[in-house]
Write a structure and sequence with these properties.
Blueprint: E1 4-9, H1 13-26, E2 30-36, H2 37-45, E3 52-58, H3 60-69, E4 79-85, E5 91-96, H4 99-105, H5 111-128
Antiparallel strand pairs: 1-5, 2-3, 3-4, 4-5
């Protein structure tokens, strides 16, 4: 059983993260949480791995509709989006398929919310391959952690 929506982007990790944030925003999702898995595992366990970021994306209107249907659905929110390096110039972007919340909860009334979230996440991920790379700037940028 597949539980994710995946796209491969022919861009380095850091450029892809910026594009993912913009694509999610255009579909009404904000990023509530950010987990830098690579940094966490290095700090806590002393292990190295590829760049791997988990973004907790939330579309407030969809979250509100889902919570009105089933208060326990908060256990499955926000929508996790993973951005991970797959070599030096390729990045995988993955989102949890919102249909999973319908399957897990057994709440058929969540189907409309899941359908809309699925459409929006597909739209966001589909645009990644079509976007031009971010413009280079002369000023250094700081990454928030």
């Amino acid at each position: 059983m597949s539980y994710g929506i995946t796209t491969r982007v022919a861009r380095p990790f850091s450029a892809t993260v910026s594009l993912v944030r913009a694509a999610l925003s255009e579909q009404g999702f904000g990023v509530l949480t950010e987990i830098d898995v690579k940094a966490t595992l290095r700090q806590k366990l002393g292990v190295e791995m590829e760049e791997y970021l988990i973004l907790g994306a939330c579309n407030p209107a969809l979250a509100h509709r889902a919570l009105d249907t089933d208060r326990d659905i908060g256990l499955l929110l926000p929508c996790n989006v993973v951005v991970r390096a797959d070599g030096p110039d390729t990045t995988l972007v993955q989102a949890l398929d919102p249909q999973i919340m319908v399957q897990i909860s057994g709440q058929p009334h969540l189907r409309d919310v899941a359908d809309e979230a699925t459409t929006r996440l597909h739209a966001a991920l589909d645009t990644l391959a079509e976007r031009p790379p971010p413009a280079a700037t002369d000023a250094p940028t700081a990454e928030a952690h």
